[in-house]
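Need tokens for this chain, all 442 residues.
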Amino acid sequence: MRFIDLVQLVGYNLGRRKGRVLLTAIGVVIGTAAVVVLVSLAVGLQKNATQQLWGINDLTSIEVYPGYSEMSVSPVKMGGGGGGGGGGDGMVYLTPDAISEIEALPDVKLVVREDYLNSAMELKYGKLVGYSGAIGVDVDDLSTMGLTASEGSTELTRGSVVIGAYINQNFYDPNMRPNDPPLEPPQLIGETLRFVLIKYTQDGQEVRKTFNMKVSGVLAETRGSSDYNIYMRLDELTGWNEWSRGTRINRNKEGYNMIIVKAESPDVVTGIADQITAMGFMANTPQAVLEGINSFFTVLQVVFGGVGAIALLVAAIGIANTMTMSILERTREIGLMKAVGATNRDVLSVFLGEAAGIGFIGGLGGVLVGWSLSALLNLVGLSYFAGQVSENGGLPPTMITTTPIWLPIFGLFFAAVVGLISGLYPALRAATMVPITALKYE
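Here are the structure tokens for all 442 residues:
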């Protein structure tokens, strides 16, 4: 039997029992729609989580901190000789020699040394008082670190700072009265900020020192830690820390608080981080966080898909029942087909085709229904969360559900396969019937 003849015969047979086929296909529609909606929900939650994850904006970066010598597997680090930076206090420091070893690792593109202000500080602008953290970096331009400016420049020069996107929101007027209108965030680009450093002597006396720094740039929003920090040259911040502690900083012994390692591509980040950890340091990578989130949501997709597949299993029982009843009603027809020359394979193909056809029809309807419900859920969900955000603040989700292109194709194919498998036993019964017995069946 030619394929086109088989398709026409299957279509004709299904058309003879439209009501029964429709009722059976409804079960497949429900199961397929459940799979599409639930998996779309899991995919949407995954994309929303990864897009809004705080600070995940550069998958090629690795944050490296000093570690403990117990973590080290390198005898060089443990002995403190060479470039290790192992200290007598059990710490493994990010000394210049240790950083040189990290820079020499394969696929490392750049290493940026960082240090934090270790002193209490007041930030002043006119009559306003603010607060922030200050970070010193050993790069001449923050664009090297992947940061961009919304105003001004990202270049770091002596006597200037580049501030994060939210720094201007951290100012308040200490003399504001209860009836005064809310304070408008000041425009700081090109203005001079007063950094008042505070330290205490051994007898408890407070000592202050003021540094004036010009704001040369405002960083674009990243939704990361850079939005709340002030960046300056590392040598200037080192001088501030030395004033605060009253002694000079020996990098060969104390190292740096942190370094940022830039990899050539996100694909090699995990491998580089493992090598750095083996050297005794602590390495945090956005890539590892993202991989963990993706693994969780992959499991969630499988679980949600399995829940929807249960409905398809119920529909499969319905298809098997419908095909079994159809064989009983068409026993003489099967005998007639065999009497005029149809082989067992032809009969098997016809009934398998009918079962697969019911699955395909139900799958097509399920995909359309599932996609429509997914779009409706997305619309209603976004409207609801937008209202919640307007009342309580925060960031609204960018999506609730997302239907990837492979999901409708998979749903349609899976429904057809379920129908095919469901009709296998009834089709085998039909194919193995004895023609004479079938013709005599009443």
